[in-house]
Amino acid sequence: MSYQWPCITNWLEQLASPFYQQGYVVLEQAIPADLCQALYQDVQQQELKAAGVGRQGQHLLDLQVRRDQTAWLNADNPVQQQYLQMMAKLQQDMNQRCFLGLIDFEAHYARYQQGDFYQKHLDAFVGRSNRVLSTVCYLNTAEQGGELVLYDEQDQLLTKVQPKAGTLVVFESCRFPHEVLPAAEPRYSIAGWFRHNSSIQGRIDPAL
Predict the structure, then answer these.
(1) What was the pLDDT predicted at 97?
(2) Under a CB-based contact definition with an 8 Å cutoff, are residues 110 and 190 in contact?
(3) Which segments in the chain show pLDDT lower than 50?
């Protein structure tokens, strides 16, 4: 598999405007083709394990909720470090533009094989989590199935994103319920979350 597309040099600027307007953005060709291909090759070498739901003491496996497999990114891995450095630029840009106080980022590879899904959920709840921004970066193109579906705060359909290599999705963690529809073929991505200081509460102000 050979990845080829023009490199977007101003991806931060292209991401900012629609995000301010609607709280989410889908940006194609955001990740350089050579990095995306390197990440796709890297994930093939990782030991991915069945993902659970909940955190810490409440973490458990529930195949009725999700059936993907994951492996956390490690900055000691040179290829993964390149992606984390891109996200560090995004963190800095969002802090400068929106004064979000983002302090760190965590991410994992995700693999959805045929029939795998993730039911509708929120990545954070107001007052109960310090996740602020969620990200999804697609590492391969899936022609059918595995779509990411975003809903608004009234649970109405906003958009359905077909997995396409190099595409980056960013959205507010506590605002948009979302799900991954059953995959028809292998689907690889990186899911990540930016956090802020837990003393900072509330939703992002689109006017900032």
Answers:
(1) 85
(2) yes
(3) 56-59, 199-208
Query: What is the end-to-end Cα distance of the chain in Å, rounded?
Result: 41
d(CA 198, CA 202): 10
Q: What pLDDT, on the 0 to 100 scale, is given for residue 110?
A: 98
DSSP string, the chain: --------TTHHHHHHHHHHHHSEEEETT-S-HHHHHHHHHHHHTS--EE--BS-GGG-B--TTTB--EEEE--TTSHHHHHHHHHHHHHHHHHHHHH---EEEEEEEEEEE-TT--EEEE-S--TTT--EEEEEEEESS--SSB--EEEE-TTS-EEEEE---TT-EEEEETTT--EEEPPBSS-EEEEEEEEEE-TT--S---TT-
47 Rama class: left (phi>0) / alpha (psi -120 to 50) / beta? beta
Angle, helices 78-98/33-44, rounded to nearest 10 degrees: 130
Which residue carries 């800095």 as its tokens?
92
CA geometry: angle 146, 149, 150, nearest 5 deg: 155
Helix 78-98 to helix 11-22 angle, to the nearest 10 degrees?
50
Nearest Cα to 55, choosing from 193, 168, 203, 148? 193
